[in-house]
Amino acid sequence: MATEGLHENETLASLKSEAESLKGKLEEERAKLRDVELHQVAERVEALGQFVMKTRRTLKGHGNKVLCMDWCKDKRRIVSSSQDGKVIVWDSFTTNKEHAVTMPCTWVMACAYAPSGCAIACGGLDNKCSVYPLTFDKNENMAAKKKSVAMHTNYLSACSFTNSDMQILTASGDGTCALWDVESGQLLQSFHGHGADVLCLDLAPSETGNTFVSGGCDKKAMVWDMRSGQCVQAFETHESDINSVRYYPSGDAFASGSDDATCRLYDLRADREVAIYSKESIIFGASSVDFSLSGRLLFAGYNDYTINVWDVLKGSRVSILFGHENRVSTLRVSPDGTAFCSGSWDHTLRVWA
Amino acid sequence: MAAGPAPPPGSPRAQMPHLRKMERVVVSMQDPDQGVKMRSQRLLVTVIPHAVTGSDVVQWLAQKFCVSEEEALHLGAVLVQHGYIYPLRDPRSLMLRPDETPYRFQVRLGGAAIYLAKKNIRKRGTLVDYEKDCYDRLHKKINHVWDLVLMQAREQLRAAKQRRKGDRLVIECQEQTYWLVNRPPPGAPSVLEQGPGRGSCAASRVLMTKSADFYKREIEYCRRALGRTRVKSSVCLEAYLSFCSQHRPHDPLVSGCLPSNPWISDNDTYWVMNAPTVAAPTKLRVERWGFSFRELLEDPVGRAHFTDFLGKEFSGENLSFWEACEELRYGAQAQVPTLVEAVYEQFLAPGAARWVNIDSRTMEQTLEGLRQPHRYVLDDAQLHIYMLMKKDSYPRFLKSDTYKGLLAEAGIPLETKRRVFPFMWRPRHSSPSPALLPTPVELTAACGPGGGDGVA
């Protein structure tokens, strides 16, 4: 009996050292191709002009912290969710509310608009992701047609439709991501590998449309193959929870925002971190990030109520936007890149341009 | 109180990185040589030593971090809101005023229990409701050291009676700040509020004990990663430069958009002109079709023109096949067998009406896979056809008269002049919600008869 225990310990130790040495080799391989840095290459790029961005719309109507938002493909409608369970669909151009539903749970941390514009998905502390078809029929109660799709064993932190209304990708505090068939609620694929809560995800804008990236409390950003469920690439350079991940428009890289007050850019072909966006005066975590249409600008919302605008190529901070009166919890650029929307714990959403 | 499970006290999760960073800033602010200038501040008739003015704090932060005064003021305000700096005047509002208002640095944090106990003793048990709740809860929590708390409270009160008026005022402000930060009155926002507890899930607890499985997975991942090809940084980074510069004129937030940005001008003409299906696409839009095959396919107008072009070349079945495969991949699970069958009949079966030309090996593998249909069974065939179109048909399309004609015809909108009288109210047009419209005609309806061939 005693020898068996000893044997197990030795195997564990040797596995650990093997893993460590392989990781070291991987770092070496990555470093070999590191012939230049982004800011060096970007020296010959024209500097951006003065930036004047203002709040163009303020959406008031949530009675509590706004936690998440998503744009409709029509470039003007948005869906937003809050701590008190309310999910609202707005025409943000006119600021009219078009639909509202109250979820049976608090802290609705995830919401998404379906590609057709005919449904929304949301979830949070109920550990589920539910789909609501949007109806204009006055006689119909939106909550009546609700479809319960995803079931996790801890809170839902993020959700996104794939290329159609019929599939949803979810991320959860239970440490996994999952792909679901909306109609049947069937689990199509699950993704295991994060060592702690998964907080965010983003689908890759690729030609073959097969991968997505997720970020978690284990400080890792992981890229997954949707077909096989395998992790194809992982990056671990952040010093704290990763709150948000977003692909660069070409699909060759993605940005992340973390509680360590930095945003970082990871290149998928070079297989390494290529830029850090940080400043000594920025102390609070970045909660959400998104790129402008050309990928030149990175907008990041922070827990100190501000939004910082970064020059992706040169690495410098182009502008700081004040306005929100509490944490910025969510931020997305509109589908045609004419504006971006931020949601905050101050109960409001703002559209900036 | 915050919803969801709270982190256990003292756990690493509770040590948020921003608190440590703020502490470091505050420490450097108090540096005798490099820190903020300390002086004695006169407050009515009392003199308070070791105080700083709001404007000095703002100047110091602006210089230290090379930021604007607006940003320095914001950063300073955050430090005050968290109680690291407290006001000596009007301690009820935790604001940073960029003027002669005096502030001091918080020396000790903690002692909510002592504060409450002192208040209780002083006011002889007349605490406000929510204070009483906290007092009772604290009492329960630290019952075993409650005698110690009471003793400290009594001692401090005794000492306070003997202290100079100046010190008493300072201590009062200190404690008032502490109270405002850590136990704000109901309804007031708390800077210390966190979202639902993270890291409380079973996954983190289990994996914290790094098991053999965990290492085996890491080893497997590393082996696979080592086998992967990587690209030189210079190549990857150059790609960003060219992507950014190519797309720059198309980025409204960087280059503006014509006739105007709807959000700025309240005029939605830009959206009308760039609607998904429009008879006359703008020049920028037609240009984008030339950036990549993906951009062409993603634009409904671009795709329609490409479909017509393929029809003329008698290779329309390729795009239809690709669209059918997309429908399968992203369709409902229940539809999978039906869709696979339909695709086989139309595109792959020998003698099929719209037979696609795939290489024999891929065809063989695909037909083999069709025995057990699943949503990814056509992936290889789909990729083959996609690459065929991308490498062959697409470049020809860009060189074709059709495309060149479209490019020449496409117009550049005139800029809308800014409104001369900004106070003239302009109604914002609403648009019909996509949810109101009848089910949009899907471009992926390839399984219908003669879809997209352009044949009359």
TrEMBL record, chain B:
Residues 215-256 form the G protein gamma domain. GO terms for biological process: G protein-coupled receptor signaling pathway; intracellular signal transduction; negative regulation of signal transduction; regulation of G protein-coupled receptor signaling pathway. GO terms for molecular function: GTPase activator activity; GTPase activity. InterPro entries: DEP_dom (IPR000591), G-protein_gamma-like_dom (IPR015898), GGL_sf (IPR036284), RGS (IPR016137), RGS6/7/9/11 (IPR047016), RGS6/7/9/11_DHEX_sf (IPR047017), RGS_DHEX (IPR040759), RGS_sf (IPR036305). The keyword Iron-sulfur does not apply. Residues 32-119 form the DEP domain. Gene3D superfamilies: 1.10.1240.60, Regulator of G-protein Signalling 4, domain 2, Transducin (heterotrimeric G protein), gamma chain, Winged helix-like DNA-binding domain superfamily/Winged helix DNA-binding domain. Residues 292-407 form the RGS domain. SMART domains: DEP, G_gamma, GGL, RGS. Keywords: Signal transduction inhibitor. The keyword Chaperone does not apply. GO terms for cellular component: cytoplasm; neuron projection; plasma membrane. Pfam families: DEP, G-gamma, RGS, RGS_DHEX. This is RGS11 isoform 5. It comes from Pongo abelii (Sumatran orangutan).
